[in-house]
Amino acid sequence: MLFYTGKLFPAHYRDGAFISFHGSWNRAPLPQAGYKVVFVPFDGLQPFGEYQVFAQGFSGEKPIYSPGQARFQPMGLAQGPDGALYIGDSQQGRIWRVIYTGNS
C-alpha cells in the first residue's frame, strides 16, 4: 500500500492510497482473482467512497486456476521524486513506471 503525496497525477489522487492485489492462492476450484492495483480516495484520515481499479490485466489470459499461471503479480508500490508511480512484479521481476500526461 502507498499513500500518494506526489503532484504528477490529478488532485483526485493526492493523499489517497494505492493498494496492490498480489493475487489469490487458495480459491480452488474457482479461478484465481486479484492481480490488480486499486486506488482508495481519502478525505483527511478516512477512506472516502468506493475503491477504483487503477491498473489490471496482470494475470494475462483468463481464467487462471493456479497462481503460477499468472503472467505478472503486482506486489510493491513506490512513488518517484517526480510523482510517478512504480509497480513491482514478483513473478518475473518487472517494474512499471506509471505517469500521467493529460490535463489535471
Q: What is the secondary structure topology, with strand pairs?
A:
Elements: E1 2-3, E2 17-21, E3 36-40, E4 42-43, E5 46-47, E6 52-55, E7 74-79, E8 85-89, E9 95-98
Antiparallel strand pairs: 1-2, 2-3, 3-6, 4-5, 7-8, 8-9
Question: Could you characterize what this model shows?
Answer:
It is a single chain. By secondary structure, the protein is mainly beta. It has one domain. 0% of the residues lie in helices and 34% in strands. It contains no helices and nine strands. Strands 1-2-3-6 form a four-stranded antiparallel β-sheet, with no helix packed on it. Strand 7 (74-79) and strand 8 form a beta hairpin. The two termini are 23 Å apart. The model has no long low-confidence stretch (mean pLDDT 92).
Helix proportion of residues, in percent?
A: under 10%
Give the tally of structural domains. Answer: 1
Low-confidence stretches: none
Rg over CA atoms, rounded to whole Å, is 15 Å
Percent of residues in β-strands: 25-35%
What is the mean predicted local confidence, pLDDT? 92
Shape descriptor: globular
Terminal-residue CA separation = 23 Å
Please summarize the sheet with the most strands.
Answer: 4 strands, antiparallel
Strand order of the largest sheet: 1-2-3-6
Coarse structural class: mainly beta
What's the total count of β strands?
9
H and E order: EEEEEEEEE
Q: How many separate helices? A: 0
